[in-house]
Amino acid sequence: MKPRVLVSLELFPKVAAVVPGMDDLDIAYACSRAGADGLMVGVPSENANRESLARFDRAGLPLLCVHASLHQLDNLNSLGSAPDRFLISDDGRVVKQFDSIADLKQRLSGTHQEIAVLIEPEPQIIKAVAKTRANWVAFSTTDLQQVESLAHAEQEMLRLRSATLLASRNNLRAMLYGDVDRHLAPSLARLEGLEEIVPTNTLWALALRHGWEQALEIFRRWIE
After folding, report:
1. pTM for this structure?
2. How far apart are CA 221 and CA 217, in angstroms?
3. What percentage of the chain reaches a pLDDT higher than 70?
4. Where are the beta strands (DSSP E) in the chain?
5. What pLDDT digit, counting tens, does each position of 158-204 carry?
6. Cα–Cα distance between 6 and 28 in angstroms, integer?
7. Reduced to 3 states, what is the DSSP secondary structure of residue 89?
8. Using CA atoms, how far apart are residues 72 and 76, in angstroms rounded to an integer?
9. What is the pLDDT of residues 111-141, one digit of tens each?
10. I want to staple 38 with a disulfide (CB 3.0 to 4.6 A). Which of 6, 54, 60, 132 is the partner?
C-alpha cells in the first residue's frame, strides 16, 4: 500500500508575495479535488485562535495538520477543534527533549487530535517519543536529499527503513517530511511502516509548472 500524500501550504506566504492573486483556500480545494490526503499549515504568527484556521475547517477539505514549534505549544488549545493533527518541531528542526510533548498529549486527551513529532530516525529517540504516547513520528528527508554518494544514500535509506519499522513496533505511525526528488521517491514509498509523505517544496515546484491537480498526479506516479 502506497503512502498517503499531504500537501504543505507553509510555503504559501512566500510564493504569494511574488505571484499575485494566489489564494490559499483555492489551493486547498484544488488539492482536495486532486485527491490530496491532507493539508499542512503553520500556526499563524499573530492572533492564533480558532478563527485563524476557520477557512480550512470546511466540508470537502481533507485532514488538517498544523505545524507548530515547541515555543507555541501553550497556544495550541486556542486553535479549537479544526486541526486533526499537530506536527511539532523545534522551529523546523528535530525535537530532542520530550517533556513538553507528554504535557501536550495530556492536555489533548479526550479529543480527536493527534500529535506527530519531528525527530532524528534513531532507536533511543523513537523509544523516548513512544513514552510520551504521541501518535506519530516524522522523519526529515533533508539528510537524504543532501547525500553526495551512492554509499551515503544507501546508508541513509537503511537508517530510515530501520526507523519506520521500529516506530511501528512501538505503536507509532510514521511520516516523512521534506523534499522528495523523483529518483528517491519510489524507494521512500516502499519503506515498511511508512504511512504518509509531506513532499514540501517538491509539490510546490511541480504545481507552479503544471497546476496542483497535475502536480499530485505526477508525484503519485513517482511513488508507484
Report:
1. 0.94
2. 6
3. 98
4. 4-8, 38-42, 63-69, 85-89, 114-119, 136-140, 173-177, 194-198
5. 999 999 999 999 999 999 999 999 999 999 999 999 999 999 999 99
6. 11
7. strand
8. 7
9. 999 999 999 999 999 999 999 999 999 999 9
10. 6
